[in-house]
Amino acid sequence: MTALVLAEHDNANFNAATLHAITAAKAMGGDMHILVAGAGCKTVADQAARVAGVSKVLLADDAALEYRLAENVAPLIARLAANYSHVLAVATTTGKNVMPRAAALLDVQQISEIVAVESADTFLRPTYAGNAMTLVQSGDKVKMITVRATGFEPAAAEGGSAAVETVAGASDSGLSKFVGRDVHKSERPELTSARIVVSGGRGMQSGDNFKLLEAVADKLGAAVGASRAAVDAGFVPNDYQVGQTGKIVAPELYIAVGISGAIQHLAGMKDSKVIVAINKDEDAPIFQVADYGLVADLFQAMPEFAAALQKQAAA
Amino acid sequence: MKVLVAVKRVIDANVKVRVKADGTGVETQNVKMAMNPFCEIAIEEAVRLKEAGTATEIVAVACGTTQSQETIRTALAMGADRGILVEHDGVLEPLAVAKLLKAVVDREQPRLVIAGKQAIDDDSNQTGQMLAGLLGWAQGTFASKIAFDGEWLHVTREVNEGLEKIDIKLPAVITTDLRLNEPRYASLPNIMKAKKKPIETLKPADLGVDVTPRLKVLKVNEPPKRQAGVKVGSIAELIDKLKNEAKVI
Ligand SMILES: Cc1cc2nc3c(=O)[nH]c(=O)nc-3n(C[C@H](O)[C@H](O)[C@H](O)COP(=O)(O)OP(=O)(O)OC[C@H]3O[C@@H](n4cnc5c(N)ncnc54)[C@H](O)[C@@H]3O)c2cc1C
Ligand SMILES: Nc1ncnc2c1ncn2[C@@H]1O[C@H](COP(=O)(O)O)[C@@H](O)[C@H]1O
User: Fold this and answer.
1) Which atom of ligand 2 is closest in space to residue B5's alpha carbon?
2) C-beta of residue B156 within 8 angstroms of C-beta of residue B164
3) Which of A16, A180, A267, B154 has a CA 20 to 30 Å removed from the CA of A301?
4) Are B232 and B111 in contact, with CB atoms under 8 Å apart?
């Protein structure tokens, strides 16, 4: 029994989010291989080979795979899957885009966003925005799985020394072309891996007001997130959205500012270790999940928060 | 251009879902049902394409129980021209739905299929990608903008890093993200008109599709509950608690 894990990367760096899927793959109880599909991505394969517990890295280095277009990557996965008991990917937008297509090519029912491995064929996954935890057993020949990163600790990035084996046979379907990416460069930690997240909602009133959050976030070394309402209103970009249909986060500390606490938002953050809510409405549902609640106007509280942290840092 | 839209009937997004005491699923008795919100966005996009003269006909397809007719009626009231119900009483997993949709596509020959990115009940996020795979078509998932350009479609996708732009060849499958559009409410006259629009009913067997589930649901449980904590009176108190009690800053 061997599990294959699809590496998340940008052709230069192995993305640490993959390490969560690797932990899930190891829980299946057999060997674990990593697939690096990309273009000019040899260094990624070398990084993958050092991950603790990996026994082989498959390197598919082909121009057709440069941007992980689903039409080109899915057939490769489907072909390689014949040699594996499980194929796993972390549930990023890349994994979510590619894996179901590969599963369909294999005539396999994928299991999405698992948070626990009960046995090699039985998995726990949240449904209904995390309001129902569903334990499912798969009878398919290959288990096609996406992994919710917050459900599994990351595997150690170092300690392995696997051989890198080249796999050929990727090709361009001609069906799709990558055009470009609009990426928001930030010095702050990445939202899904940050130790602290400060998120703003509709109560922020404007994108400009997010500076109030950023001031606090920067003093805490935190990432900045948002509710759907804040994204829909154009205050912040789409990749800030935390929730059922955005990013799932579980930091040590989550600070929700001007966010009411709709089910769909809670689905993305309720597994955080400590939750703080700052809201002027004392009946806001967010207070039902908050460890510490402050009923206050954020436009007073946030500058005060930043100033107090500043003072402590100076002392 | 004919456009096919996949619509799913789900528990309304505003309902607090409750797990059944026997652990077999969630409570659906006397619970408000609605069209999956991402499917509303899919219908809206199709209707806008028709208003712009790009789409000529919109076919709304739902797979599920007889009650899914209501969901199709909603789609018709929003502007779809006709409906197809693939009627089945049991569980339909995304792979089975994708196979049913493929069979309908083979009959209807649309140039574009629009699905939601995710059904808010099973939270699978699979069906559109699976359908594209089965058809051997291009896929533009998590779309926040689409624009036609001859045989190609420009798609802006919401991805983890921000936005991604791709071009995909027609025929294609699109899955909708939240920012693609804001769905309209059906007007009363349109709701009345929708009652006269045709809905064809088929069975999986008519389409030659085996929909036997691949997954066995062993148990459905409530998630662990979080306890509400305490209210603090000031920022100073909050910082003190975070430092000395929770020890997270
Ligand atoms: C299909 C679907 C998917 C969805 N996916 C997501 C998702 O992934 N993530 C998500 O977040 N939502 C999602 N939603 C939306 C969700 O249902 C809520 O509408 C949304 O989370 C509300 O955002 P909010 O809390 O910022 O806004 P609101 O609910 O409007 O709350 C704003 C809060 O700010 C407070 N406030 C206002 N002014 C101040 C002030 N000066 N000081 C302090 N507090 C103030 C108010 O008291 C209020 O509680 C989804 C909805 C649907 C239907
Ligand atoms: N039973 C169904 N009938 C029609 N369309 C469906 C059905 N299930 C899923 N879909 C479509 O696939 C999308 C994604 O669903 P899922 O893959 O289940 O998250 C939905 O938004 C619908 O467009």
Assistant:
1) 23
2) yes
3) A267
4) no
Residue of A131, A198, A199, A202 with the most ligand 1 atoms within 8 Å of its CB, for mutation: A202
Task: Tell me the nearest-neighbour CA distance from B207 into chain A, angstroms.
Answer: 17
Q: How many CA atoms lie within 13 A of B233 on its CB side?
A: 0
Q: What is the ipTM of this complex?
A: 0.98
Question: pLDDT of A73-97, one tens digit each?
Answer: 999 999 999 999 999 999 999 999 9
- Tell me if B159 and A93 make a contact (CB, 8 A cut-off): yes
Mutate to test the pocket of ligand 2, among B8, B11, B86 (most ligand atoms within 8 A of CB): B8
Question: Tokens 């979080």 label which residue?
Answer: B226
Q: Which residues line ligand 1 (CB under 6 A)?
A: A 201-203, 227-230, 241-246, 258-260, 262, 264-265, 268, 279-281, 284, 297-299; B 13, 37, 120
Check B141 against A263: CB less than 8 A apart.
no
- Report CB contact under 8 Å: B11, A136: no
| Separation of alpha carbons B214 and A140, rounded Å | 7
Residue with tokens 């008991």: A85
pTM value > 0.90: yes
Task: Tell me the one-letter amino acid at A61.
Answer: D
- Give distance in angstroms: CA of A260 to centre of ligand 1: 5
- Mean pLDDT, contiguous 10-residue spans, chain B (249 residues): 98 97 95 98 98 98 98 98 98 98 98 98 98 99 98 98 98 98 97 98 98 98 93 98 97
Task: Give, rounded to a whole angstrom, the gap between the first and last alpha carbons of chain A.
Answer: 57
**Residues of chain B found within 8 Å of residue A130, distances taken between Cβ atoms:** 223
From chain A, the residues in CB contact with B162 under 8 A are 181-184, 237-239
Q: Kindly state the tokens that stand for B102.
A: 């493929």
Q: How far is the CA of B21 from the centre of ligand 2 (A)?
A: 27
Say how far apart CA B139 and CA B167 lie, in whole Å: 10
Listed residue (A119, B100, A121, A76) closest to A111, CA to CA: A121
Phi-psi region at B207: left, alpha or beta (left = phi > 0; alpha = psi -120 to 50): alpha
Task: Give the C-alpha separation, B237 to B243, whole Å.
Answer: 10
Contacts of B59 (CB under 8 A, 6+ apart): B2, B3, B4, B5, B80, B81, B82, B83, B84, B108, B110
pLDDT digits (tens, 9 = 90+) for B101-159: 999 999 999 999 999 999 999 999 999 999 999 999 999 999 999 999 999 999 999 99
Query: How do residues A37-68 score in pLDDT, each as one tens digit?
Result: 999 999 999 999 999 999 999 999 999 999 99
Question: Which of A129, A135, A291 is opposite residue B218, by nearest beta carbon?
Answer: A135
Pairing of strands A196-200, A223-226: parallel
The alpha carbon torsion through B229, B235, B239, B241 (nearest 10 deg) reads -30
The residue behind tokens 């119900």 is B85
Unique residue bearing structure tokens 């966010």 = A259
pLDDT (tens digit, 9 = 90+) per residue, A139-156? 999 999 999 999 999 999
* DSSP secondary structure, B27-68, as one string: --TT--EEE-HHHHHHHHHHHHHHHTTS-SEEEEEEEESTTH
